[in-house]
Amino acid sequence: MASTSPEPPSTPEESRPLTPPLSPSSTEILETAAQHALNSEDPSFLIAVLNELDLPVLTYRSRMILNHLIQYHPIPLCHRLSKIIFSLRDTITKVTSAVALEIFKSFFSDASWGEFIKPLLLDLKRDDYAVEIIPIINELLSHFNPHYIPENDWPGFTTAVCDNLDSDKEEVLEFVLSVINRLFTDGAEKILELSLETLCDKLKKILRSSDVSLKVKEAAVEASLGCILRLKNAVNDEFLQDLLRKVINTVFFNGEIKFDMSQEGYARLILDQLVALARTDAWFLRNQVDKVLEFTFIIMENPQCEERTRFLAIEFVLVLVEDRKGCQILVSTGGLHIKRMLSQLLCMIATINENTALDNRDERDQEQWRLLDQGMKSMARFSQALGGRFLLEGFPQPFESCLNSEAWQRRHAAVSSLSIISKNCSKTLKSKVDLVANPIMKMVDDIHHHVRWRAMYAVEEFSKYLHPELQNHYNQKVLPALTKAMDDFSDSKIQVQAAMATYHFVEYCTSNMLEPHLDEIISKLLRCLQKGKQLLKLWALSALAAIAKSSQDRFLEYYRTVMPYLKVVMTKAERESNSKLLSATVSCITAIWTVFGKDKFGDDTQQVVQLLVSTPISNLEIHDPMRIEVLRAWGRLCKCLGHRFQPYMEVAIPCLLQSAQLTLPDDANVEESDERNRMIQIKTETLEEKATACVLLRDCVAELKEGIDLWIDEVAETLVPLLNFYEHAEVRIAAVLAMPEILKSSKAAIEKRLLQKSPFEKLCSDIIPALIEALVKLSGPVLNIDQIKRFLSVIMDVLDTSISIPKGDEASEQGEKVSKKVCACLKIFMKTYKGSLLQFFDQLLSRMEHMWVKDKTVKERKIALKIFTDVVEEFREEALKFCESELSLLFKACNDEEPEVQEIAAHGIGVAAAFGGSIFKPLVGEAVSALNANISDSMALHRDYIMAHDAAVTALGQIYLFHEDRINASEVFSTWLSHLPIKNNLLEVKIAHDLLCSIVEKSEDELLRQDFAYLPKIIAAFAEILWADDETLATEETVNRVIKQLRDFKSRLPSNIWSSILSTLEPSRQNVLQLSLSS
């Protein structure tokens, strides 16, 4: 049958291979063909296969042969293909080479590439044809990951690389250096460690040579920097220092750059490597730093260089100075480099025009904006690294030169730089505030309005970061300058900035500082409220509120003057639905009231209250600033009015509750970026409002105390769940801080008989578990040592108070609940602060010792023993070191008259046995005696004592498991086993039955070697556990262990013994056991 495969291309008859047809179904024939293709001296057969692959559709025969070669003979195929490509010259292999390269791209992994490139590297020096096909190999290199040479798989690779670096052919040098640089680029440089010293010597030779081209030297510089950066830990420091010296001399010698600066890509490559080196090991540059910095500054200061090249030069200096040792290197070179850097940054910041100064981002000014932004960011980093005081004291000349310049742009740059430095170096400048304040105060009256505006902005920055030193020493200069600027109605931008600066400056002023200037400042601010635009009014309102807060009673004489202006602004803003101005006015008025208290502002509240009542927040958009301001206004009114606020609670408290109960929007299904951004904004605003409401609810409860009795339940129901609100810390903190206030308020309302029924019990049962849960979820310890000490003291005081309530008292039951919750809280606290509590053991255990002596109440002894048990369980032997002598009290308590004391004491003995280690061993005998006395008592199985009995049985099992070497093992085991299974104390049964599994697993061989005396009882206990058919008596894990153990018994016991034991069980237990084993 004729083949449907396409015919191979027509070739001369004598060059076509004469091969018999192959049957691809025969593996033997395929292997024969593969061997012929790989081993024949004549490569024509493999060439024919490759040529057929060049057809549009592979012939079936060629595909089968190729797949066989790739699958079973990949390395020999690599070698054979390399020989064809790199050695043969005839015309047929021109096509064959391309096909072979395509085979590698399609079928071979990167790991095979080493085998493919070997012949080329070995032939480069002696074979001109290998040099000719370098462009082909370079093209192929771009398709492969340089990890193609596995480490130590071919040591000859680095030898071949180094040998070829002696070549006198430019093409060979370029190719080998490109291979080296490719290794560095893709992180495969460790291959070169095998011959690193030789490689570096060869690179030095190239760098010194006058016979190689600039292009080769550039590639050698790149490779040398790669060795220094990536392999500097592989050889000694001096060796690579010498290589760095050769590199620097190659690119920069006698103060001149030794390459064509039109090739800025090469300059950026060098700078990139220098930046990386400074970032990883700045100290390595110490011997060449002068030359490197000179090279960097020449590029930085060259206006003909591209912007990105100059920025990269700046980045090198910044990275160097931000490294501690690099900073030392720079400072040690003298001040020239620092002065040049400052001058360069000031020049960049001075790249400003009328538009950029006004913050108008016109597309035509993009270059100026980039230079300005880069200069300001770089000045911040440079000053932060060196220290503002160091710069301004040591290098004042660049700043003075700019401040005294006739060009307003340079004066503007100096003022901008001083404000940047004050922000980033506030700690060092606070003691030398004159360094920045004096120059700025001269600039506030500058002839150019942009400089004046920037000086006002600098005053604002100084006020925020250099307080209170600025206010203490410059209030006599700053305040008159600000009032003068606010009077400049010809330039509203300066007015607004002056009002902003006033707000920030007076925040940290005292009343004595403000008093001489109050007339002038308040007059100017009121004028701004009358004639200014909205932004000026907003900052004037903020400034008035800050002045009232700082001047305190001295503002009172201005109250009657200021309030009419504020009312007019508020009325107008309400009429015009101007929510921003309305919220700011309400904020200012209520802030002033907060300063003076309820007795000073008389009837002025009415208009504000009417506004608040008529503005339900449910009618406002979530982004409306009035929402939060309404909440804050209610909170401030409550604080101002105290109990006189009660008439307004009917409106205020529901408003606060509504905001505190806000839920976050669901953005899970939002995909579009714009919509998602909108949802994020809503979520942020919602969280801010929720946190504000929670804080204000807490403040209202604290202020009104019993006066909020009608709302106490709703406030608690709202805030308690928020103890675990982990979407926002401020919400959670406010909820936590509100808890004691809620409890105090409830207690005060009960004492004054304002409540018919006490909510105290419910509040305790709600609040304390929520507080415990919140403590559990803490990501880690957040309290310091003093706070831990305080916490322990407070929690022990709470325990003392709760247990001191006489039995039969109305609050006795509530006190019992509080005690349990506090013990649980203390246990969690111990887990969280385990590492810090050891030093407080004396404080903690001494209180417990005092509580568990015989003359104390049952409640006190129960709590003391419970805490002791928790401490031992958490701190193990470390805890017992502190209270070894007290263990005897524990043994006595195991047989106390009170069954609850017995139960806790028995549990404590079990915990001490499990975790007490060597400290407990000498006391094992006494412990066994105490437990035996408990479980053998005639009343042990009475319903009042059964819980204690079960705890004692569990403790006895723990002693047997952990201290078998210190007891009469067979006697204790027999006693313990006779009391199993236990079924009443659900806190103990699972522990006891898990212990049984552990003991049986540990002693299985011994149990089977004896006369099987214990097995009937063990199997009966196991059957009882399985019959329970739920997790009442054992966990799922323990049940699985029981079934596995029973299967082992069944397989290892003689069948008659197994049957005999089963016959002793009740039929129901036999059935459940058989069913469990067969499932």
Annotate the secondary structure layout.
Elements (H helix, E strand, L loop, with lengths): L26 H13 L4 H10 L6 H13 L1 H14 L4 H16 L5 H11 L4 H5 L1 H8 L14 H9 L5 H16 L10 H13 L5 H18 L5 H15 E2 L2 E2 L6 H18 L7 H12 L6 H16 L1 H9 L3 H14 L4 H4 L8 H21 L1 H7 L2 H7 L4 H17 L1 H4 L4 H10 L5 H17 L3 H18 L5 H15 L4 H4 L3 H14 L2 H18 L4 H20 L3 H18 L8 H9 L11 H17 L7 H12 L12 H32 L7 H8 L9 H23 L8 H17 L8 H19 L8 H21 L1 H4 L3 H11 L6 H18 L1 H6 L4 H7 L5 H17 L1 H4 L3 H12 L10 H17 L6 H10 L7 H24 L5 H13 L8 H17 L2 H9 L3 H12 L1
Antiparallel strand pairs: 1-2
Helix pairs in contact: 1-3, 2-3, 2-5, 4-6, 6-9, 10-12, 11-12, 11-13, 12-13, 12-14, 14-16, 15-16, 15-18, 16-17, 16-20, 18-20, 18-22, 18-23, 20-23, 22-23, 23-25, 23-26, 25-26, 26-27, 26-28, 27-28, 27-30, 28-31, 30-31, 30-32, 31-33, 32-33, 33-35, 35-37, 36-37, 37-39, 38-39, 39-40, 40-42, 41-42, ...
